[in-house]
Amino acid sequence: METAKNHFFSDMSVMLGRSMRHILRSMDTIITVCITPIAMMLLFVYVLGGAIRTGTDNYVNYLLPGILLIAIASGISYTAYRLFLDKQRGIIERFHSMPIARSAVLWGHVLTSVVSNVISVVVIILVALIMGFRSPAGVLPWLAVAGILVLFTLALTWVAAIAGLSAKSVEGASAFSYPLIFLPFISSAFVPTDSMPSVVRAFAENQPVTSIVEAIRALLSGQPVGNEIWVALAWCAGILLAAYFFAMRVYKKRV
């Protein structure tokens, strides 16, 4: 059993190194993921922020959690794209003909998504600091925020794995992320839900992005988190488990 575990982790580290080399050779992937969220943050803060009433003096503090989620939703589309290319070109089958753990290939793509999205999130936070973002949070709240973002990234990455393995074309592999990118707009990420029509408000207050945004916002502002963090963690864990289960079924069936 111990040998099998060591075999899996060593294979997974090799697959992670392979995928990371692709990322490092094409840094435009991370740059592209960062540009749109940063442009949106600039637009909302400096153009639209004066007309939006959030009850806070610093709109970038209010806005940042939603921007981070948009960046992650945008970044995971590249995971689906790279996974689709590996499947289409027969690279996954080649790896399976070697004496390696079968799931190591898939986990390599997933962990690469986590690493690349962490880099994107750090870049966006640095830009937000230049724009005036400030947080009184200590080390533990920041670690909690990091944990939520990593869990959210893992959950969406496994959703991306399903799309990458199931898609019939490159466009189909990456287009699934568009609704995920749009979802924060129908939440409390940009404006309080109180200003929304009743039907839209009901949806916004009961979808995962709102609870995740509210939990991160409370942690970064040093405010009591309440039940929002548990709701956020439940959403992330539920999506992660369901997506992992279906991704592994598709992986075994299609590859």
UniProtKB/TrEMBL annotation:
Keyword Transmembrane helix: yes
Stretches that traverse the bilayer: 30-52, 64-84, 105-133, 139-163, 175-193, 229-247
Location of the ABC transmembrane type-2 domain: 28-254
GO cellular component: ATP-binding cassette (ABC) transporter complex
Keywords associated with the record: Cell membrane, Membrane, Transmembrane, Transmembrane helix, Transport
Membrane topology (UniProt): Multi-pass membrane protein
Main subcellular location: membrane
Cited InterPro entries: ABC2_TM, ABC2_TM_bact-type, ABC_2_transport, Nod_factor_ABC_transporter
Cell compartment(s), UniProt: Cell membrane; Membrane
GO molecular function: ABC-type transporter activity
Domain of life of the source: Bacteria
Stated family: Belongs to the ABC-2 integral membrane protein family.
Name of this protein: Transport permease protein
Lineage of producing organism: Bacteria, Bacillati, Bacillota, Bacilli, Bacillales
